[in-house]
Amino acid sequence: MVTPNPDFSKEIAAAGGEEVKMCFQCGTCTAGCPSGRQTSYRVRKLMRMAQLGLKDEIINSDELWECSTCYTCVERCPRQVPIVDIVIALRNIAVAEGHIRPQHKGTAKNLAAFGHAVKVDDKISALRKEIGLPELPPTVLSNEAAKKDLDKILTLTGFDSITQE
Amino acid sequence: MAKYAFFLGCIAPLRYPGIEKSTREVCAKLGIELVDLKDASCCPAPGVIRAFNKKTWLAAAARNLALAEKEGLEIVTICNGCYGSLFEAAHELAHCPETLAEVNKILAEIGMEYKGTTKVHHFAEVLYNEVGVEAIKAKVTNPLEYKVATFYGCHFLKPSNIKGLDDTENPKILDELVEATGCKSMPRKQKTLCCGAGGGLKAAFGDVAKKFTETNLENMKESEAEMIIDVCPFCHLQFDGVQKDLGYSFPVLHLSQLYGLAMGMSKEELALGVHITPVNL
């Protein structure tokens, strides 16, 4: 037995996924989902679970992270439900409660360390120079003050709780 | 002369610098002035950083948008992920004054403000809509004859309700852009199927991502294409990196690199040697 929890919809709405209530369960999303062909991720099911407020089941699931955000479902949804926004909202709720994979934590740490999602690689820096580009791109990587500004944004928005163990 | 703030993102400058180099050269040849968007950061990545903490994503994206606004320039990106993030963040901030005000409280802490005016473009969109296929043809000095699989990726055209660039089930922009060089775009099944890399899937469930890629590769082979042309360094990385394990060896080029070849750049300048799958042309 599952116990529906209507309060969860408020939490989803606060995270930017209010329109989950628009879903009328036709299944067009699942039919076109490329991840659903390979995994047990079912978009329609996730939308229904969100409507019912099955928070624990959602935030503890692998399926929540099996969406590649390709927007095929959003393009085809007859109710124009912004499904990817809802997936993002659910993931935000999951992460806020500590559900984040080590690989994803690694990407988050790259952002905190470099201001970029990938690490600086010395071989690539050398190659950049060879083809006439500056060794480091003219981004936060080339300006310490700019990187500090970004760091401050990460701190002010609570990102440190993700990157710090 | 059209002038844009050039947003580099992460994977192009830090993994495939030939994409950055060729974009600079090709834009110069086509009369597009690129001004480096100095001090920019990661867009930040829409499928991961936005999925972890939307507030962080929006504020950091707003910082990038504000840097361009201060220069009075519209942004051009060479990556679907950057385009997705910056376009969607700009859209949200332009349409929701409350959100903009909240973001500006954060930006005020670093002495910045975003008024909500920056427009964001994709490189391929600028080429197609601003330069035009005929003007591009006129700049081709080294016509090419490859049979090509065009790969749109997801966040170039979608979500179409706010982007409105092309038909998302059967798009043609990239096919026309590729054929401007003399190449032939080969029709294939499931042309708009995701590469599998996005949304944190590559990082967390790499084998699932690889299955997406494999289906694409099978369809590309069946279409008799001999090369993949993408408009996103992340799709580029996915195809370039995983196809060997799957028994494929398509050269993978970003549109800017194909144009570089067609406009007389050397293979060295295109940094093709850094590609994981050898590019033997």
Poorly predicted ranges of chain B (pLDDT <50, ≥5 residues)? Answer: none
What's the CATH topology label of the largest domain in chain A? Fumarate Reductase Iron-sulfur Protein, Chain B, domain 2
Main sheet attributes: strand count, strand direction, barrel closure of chain B: 4 strands, parallel
The CATH architecture of the largest domain in chain B: 3-Layer(aba) Sandwich
Q: What percent of the residues of chain A sit in helical stretches (DSSP H or I)?
A: 40-55%
Structural class of chain A, please? mainly alpha
C-alpha geometry of chain A: elongated
Number of domains of chain A: 2
Q: Looking at the chains present, what oligomeric state does this protein adopt?
A: heterodimer
Greatest chain-chain interface?
A-B, 68 and 67 residues
Following the backbone from N to C, one meets helices and strands of chain A in this order, namely HHHHHHHHHH
Distance between the termini of chain A: 36 Å
Q: Low-confidence parts of chain A, pLDDT < 50 over ≥5 residues?
A: none
Q: Look at the structure and give the CATH class of the largest domain in chain B.
A: Alpha Beta
C-alpha geometry of chain B: globular
* Residues in β-strands, percent of chain B: 5-15%
Q: Tell me about the biggest sheet of chain A? A: none
Whole-number average pLDDT of chain B?
Answer: 97
Number of helices of chain A: 10
Strand order of the largest sheet of chain B: 2-1-3-4
Describe the structure.
The complex is a heterodimer of chains A (165) and B (281). Chain A is an all-alpha fold and 165 residues long. Chain A has two domains: 7-96, Orthogonal Bundle (Fumarate Reductase Iron-sulfur Protein, Chain B, domain 2), CATH 1.10.1060.10; 102-163, no CATH class. Chain A is 52% helix and 0% strand. Chain A is built from ten helices and no strands. In chain A, helix 1 packs across helix 6. Chain B is built from 14 helices and eight strands. Chain B has helices spanning 11-15, 17-29, 49-52, 54-71, 80-95, 97-108, 123-131, 133-139, 160-163, 173-179, 201-204, 206-222, 233-242, 255-262; strands at residues 2-7, 32-36, 74-77, 120-122, 147-151, 184-185, 227-230, 252-254. Chain B has two domains: 2-122, Glutathione S-transferase Yfyf (Class Pi), Chain A, domain 2 (Up-down Bundle); 141-274, Rossmann fold (3-Layer(aba) Sandwich). Chain B is globular. Chain B has 281 residues and is of the alpha/beta class. Classes of the chains: A mainly alpha (165), B alpha/beta (281). Chains A and B meet through helix 5, helix 6, helix 7, helix 8 and helix 9 of A and helix 1, helix 2, helix 3, helix 4 and helix 11 of B.
